[in-house]
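FW: tagging you since you asked about this chain on Friday. Here's the raw sequence from the shared folder, copied in full. Didn't touch anything.
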Amino acid sequence: MRRLIVSLGLALTLIITFVSLAFASSQESFYSLPDDGTLGCERSTYLETHNRSEGIVYDSQTYFDVGQWKVGGYTIMRAGLFFDTSSIPDDATIDCVELFLYGYGDHSNIDFEIRVVSGESLSRPMSTSNYHDLSGETSVLGSMHTSEWTILGYNTIEIDSTAVNKAGVTKLALRSQRDIDSVIPSELEYVEFYMSEQKGVDKDPMLVVAYSNSHHREIATAPGGQVDGKIIIVIAGVLVVILVAFAIFRIQRRRSLERR
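HL: got it, structure written out here
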């Protein structure tokens, strides 16, 4: 009986192992590439600043701004981030994406929503025309309110999984919700965060992606159908357990007969 219990425990362990393999997931962290930076513009009127065809590229400082303000003229700052996510398998399923920004300063006298939008229109390195290119990027991929902004560590923004480019570089841009809505500022409303140019990587912008691993690959079947790889693993695991149980049964039965 003791051997039977041990054998059943082994079979249960095999089941747990196969199920774990089938549903395992992976997580990778990606630091922003050196092409990151801010696109800014300052003019005497807000409309001229907002709709300007070109801005100034700031890509060599250790921290950058996102937001807008009025000090004399009107200034708008929009940021671009780049992450090499090509190491994620093409057949992986993206489960969760989070953007981490290490706060440097908070000048949001008027709080606003930081919105993550697509950066696909950005060139590498960024060009002056990218300032205007981002004017058309308004679909929200993630956001956080500056009332929650901290300069004592990382700020976390959950990102839509569709933003990740498994075939190359994931491009993201940051804009103020008030910039997107063309709300004219009357004072300071911007925040600052560290970029890749700061020394080391402990405060760099970081993208963390969790995804289902390669055990989830689809296996082609005839004719033209597809079976999820994790189903194959579970079925194989069940078959192994059945074989083990049958072998245990045969051994126990034989021993029982020998004792008679």
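FW: The two ends are 17 Å apart (CA to CA).
HL: agreed, and Helices lie at 2-22, 46-50, 130-133, 177-180, 229-259.
FW: great, closing this out.
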